[in-house]
Amino acid sequence: KQEVTQIPAALSVPEGENLVLNCSFTDSAIYNLQWFRQDPGKGLTSLLLIQSSQREQTSGRLNASLDKSSGRSTLYIAASQPGDSATYLCAFGGSNTGKLIFGQGTTLQVKP
Amino acid sequence: KAGVTQTPRYLIKTRGQQVTLSCSPISGHRSVSWYQQTPGQGLQFLFEYFSETQRNKGNFPGRFSGRQFSNSRSEMNVSTLELGDSALYLCASSFGELYNEQFFGPGTRLTVL
User: Fold this and answer.
1) Phi, psi for A72 (deg, rounded to 5)
2) In the list A4, A52, B1, B109, which could disulfide-bond A103, CB 3.0-4.6 Å?
3) Residue A99 is nearest to which of B88, B98, B109, comparing CB atoms?
């Protein structure tokens, strides 16, 4: 059974810090991996999508990497801001699953 | 371009009732997926529709069903509601394949009393 694990479950940092969120998956047959952001009570906002043939994707202060051999993806947030406070979810798209499998998320609080 | 819209945004029902939720995808998107989000189980995949056909289905009981219309709008129905069905129901649309970038709607918050 495919499992997607996100560590840490919660993170609190002062404004300006660089931080890394981790996502690990057990199934090596990956098609792609997506990172989303969710604000309380809201839907998900797509941040980055990494195809299995790619190593990383960047958008502004965000950088996501993918290491298929170790079954890991990381989301790097540079120079964090209070507006980055949200829950960050990774979603695994497997070649054989026919669906996206989500991790439980990392809840980030950036303090001014 | 308008985003994914879901109606209604909030619903309160009682056990045993049924409910229908609606999702309008981004114009041009033909794939619509539905997810249930609860604090305990997180985000779980319900089903995905593409061109009016269900392509994939998650591990939910038959009380959960859906359909997609020719204009790609989708509905999901839950019959004989249970307390455990209280959740945020999210739909997402993508252009073509399920694994293309997913765009989510704001969700429908269902409370079952």
Assistant:
1) -135, 150
2) A4
3) B98
Q: Do B90 and A104 touch (CB under 8 A)?
A: no
Euclidean distance between CA atoms B87 and B35, whole angstroms: 10
A103 with A89: CB under 8 angstroms? yes
- What pLDDT digit, counting tens, does each position of B37-66 carry? 999 899 999 999 999 999 889 999 999 999
CB B50 within 8 A of CB B30: yes
pLDDT at B31 over 80: yes
Closest CA to B37 of B98, B110, B99: B110
Please answer whether residues B103 and B26 qualify as being in contact, where contact means their C-beta atoms are separated by less than 8 angstroms. Answer: yes
- Identify whether the C-beta of residue A110 lies closer than 8 Å to the C-beta of residue A37: no
- Residues of chain B with a CB closer than 8 angstroms to some CB in chain A: 4, 33, 35, 42-45, 48, 55-56, 58, 88, 90, 92, 98-99, 101-107, 109
User: Would you place residue B95 in the very low, low, confident or very high pLDDT band (cuts 50, 70, 90)?
Assistant: confident
Instruction: Residue B43: list chain A partners with CB under 8 A.
Output: 89, 91, 102
According to the model, what pLDDT value does residue B98 have?
59
Residues of B in contact with A98 (CB under 8 A): 48, 55-56, 98
